[in-house]
Amino acid sequence: MSASLVRATVRAVSKRKMQPTRAALTLTPSAVNKIKQLLKDKPEHVGVKVGVRTRGCNGLSYTLEYTKTKGDSDEEVIQDGVRVLIEKKAQLTLLGTEMCYVEDKLSSEFVFNNPNIKGTCGCGESFNI
Predict the structure, then answer these.
(1) What is the pLDDT of residues 24-64, one digit of tens each?
(2) Which string of b and e fits 54-76 if b means at least 16 CB within 10 Å?
(3) What is the spatial distance between Cα 62 and Cα 84, in angstroms, rounded to a whole number?
(4) Partner of 14 at 20 to 30 A CA spacing, among 68, 106, 120, 121?
């Protein structure tokens, strides 16, 4: 299994009109730049893989790992030269989601703005559909 990248937060998106896209996941320019930066020193990895695991107080949590290969059932999103693979278990939960990278004085993390989730826990790491 590949090593984990960084922390990720999930945010419920409400009362925001999302534009339909062909990709299961869209990346903001900050997410694209951060993924490029993370992969620059890892030429053996082809991209990052987003998965979902059962944990946390609210049910599910996203995982983000380096990946060397594309699995048979992985969904592939290529945007601005960045390759993101989505595990089969996470594909339906990510439809229409925007992945962003946010950095401030105290933290830096990938944030998933997901219109499909019904709620998140207080820590922002887990969600329910």
Answers:
(1) 899 999 999 999 999 999 999 999 999 988 776 656 778 89
(2) eebebbbbbbbbbbeeeeeebbe
(3) 14
(4) 106
What would you report as the CA-atom Rg of the chain, rounded to the nearest whole angstrom?
14
Phi, psi of 118 (to 5 degrees): -95, -20
Prediction pTM value: 0.75
Position 32: which residue type?
V
Dihedral over alpha carbons 21, 75, 118, 61 (to 10 degrees): -140
Alpha carbons within 13 A on the beta-carbon side of 118: 5
* Both tokens assigned to 29: 């320019």
* CATH numbers and ranges of domains, the chain: 25-122 (2.60.300.12)
